[in-house]
TrEMBL record:
Residues 56-161 form the PurM-like N-terminal domain. One of its GO terms (cellular component) is cytosol. Pathway: Purine metabolism; IMP biosynthesis via de novo pathway; 5-amino-1-(5-phospho-D-ribosyl)imidazole from N(2)-formyl-N(1)-(5-phospho-D-ribosyl)glycinamide: step 2/2. This is Phosphoribosylformylglycinamidine cyclo-ligase. It is found in: Cytoplasm. SUPFAM superfamilies: PurM C-terminal domain-like (SSF56042), PurM N-terminal domain-like (SSF55326). InterPro entries: PurM-like_C_dom, PurM-like_C_sf, PurM-like_N, PurM-like_N_sf, PurM_cligase. It comes from Planomonospora venezuelensis.
Length: 341
């Protein structure tokens, strides 16, 4: 006779992981969350949507890419979930949507309850920072398909925006100003190139880097900044025409998606100095500027397009919220491209 446990799946460990994560998930709770005793599904009271004239539900899904491999190598699992939330909810907020709730999915070679609880704790903390509720998720054990210490995670979120308040390219006008909202570092894009540079240059994740004041691994695991609450407050306080979440494809690739076909965003590279991590990666990897531009956020995690008369109050509000921001460029006649002057 054989068993599921003999095949490598430990149901008891999965149940213990659920118990360990419960208190952490509770910190992300919103008033609209409804308890489901069965635990098979997450419930969210949608009656609040009755206050909207024409509510549009929005959804987004993503993962964190190969950054998980660095987390596994360093044995640090408590922040990778924050990265997941950032990648998902900050896509939602680009159109002005408030993130309401999120679910996650973790696949692993072996369920180690404490490790799973750390990962989900990070997701719950990210949801708290985003103002969203973590209302459900799944952990799957895949022995044979993944090594015991391997895992990957993905998530999906749902948000809502009033139809006539939706932001985007249709609102952008010539003469608008592009604001940069600072990133916290590399965020969660470009880690295949990061890992290639580490291998190519023979770097150690444990080595202290003077430019960082901490180890290379600590710098690279810095969690993704979550912008949703800042962007929502900005849009409530001043006129905002569009946002762009700067992920894979860099500033030019992502900001272009928020421009109409008759306008360009002319960006001033001299308006900021990218964080030291990008210079260190470029130097050790011999990476050309064009490849750095296409791969990384280079210190700008979100861009906002606002009318010229909204610049000063917008920057003042972001300063009050401890989010570094500056004038990055302007909107001019063109062909729908973001480009450097």
């Amino acid at each position: 006779m054989t068993s599921y446990a003999a095949a490598g799946v430990d149901i008891d460990a999965g149940e213990r992981a659920v118990e360990l994560m419960k208190s952490k998930v509770a910190r992300s709770r919103r008033p609209e969350v409804v308890d489901d005793a069965s635990g098979f599904a997450g419930l969210f009271d949608a009656s609040a949507l009755l206050a909207y004239r024409r509510p549009l539900l929005t959804t987004s899904t993503d993962g964190v890419g190969t950054k998980v491999m660095l987390a596994q190598k360093l044995g640090r699992h408590d922040t990778i979930g924050i990265d997941l939330v950032g990648m998902v909810v900050d896509d939602l907020v680009v159109c002005g949507a408030e993130p309401l709730f999120m679910t996650d999915y973790i696949a692993c070679g072996k369920v180690v309850p404490e490790r799973i609880a750390e990962i989900v704790g990070g997701v719950a903390e990210g949801c708290r920072l985003a103002g969203a509720a973590l209302i459900g998720g799944e952990t799957a054990e895949h022995p044979g398909a993944m090594d015991a210490d391997e895992y990957d995670l993905a998530g999906a979120a749902t948000g809502v925006v009033e139809a006539d308040a939706m932001l985007g390219r249709d609102r952008v006008r010539e003469g608008d100003v592009v604001l940069a909202l600072a990133s916290s570092g590399v965020h969660s894009n470009g880690y295949s190139l990061v890992r290639h540079i580490i291998k190519l240059a023979g770097l150690s994740l444990e080595q202290e880097v003077p430019e960082f004041g901490r180890t290379l691994g600590e710098e690279l695991l810095e969690p993704t900044r979550i912008y949703s609450l800042d962007c929502l407050e900005l849009a409530r306080s001043v006129e905002v025409h569009a946002y762009a979440h700067i992920t894979g494809g860099g500033l030019e690739g992502n900001l272009s998606r928020s421009l109409p076909p008759t306008l360009d965003a002319l960006l001033d590279r001299s308006s900021w100095t990218p964080p030291a991590v990008f210079e260190v990666l470029a130097r050790h990897g011999g990476v050309a500027q064009a490849d750095m531009d296409r791969t990384f956020n280079l210190g700008v995690g979100m861009a906002a397009v606002v009318p010229a008369d909204a610049v000063d109050p917008a920057l003042a509000l972001l300063r009050e919220r401890n989010l570094p921001a500056w004038v990055l460029g302007e909107v001019v006649a063109g062909t729908g491209r973001a480009r450097y002057r």
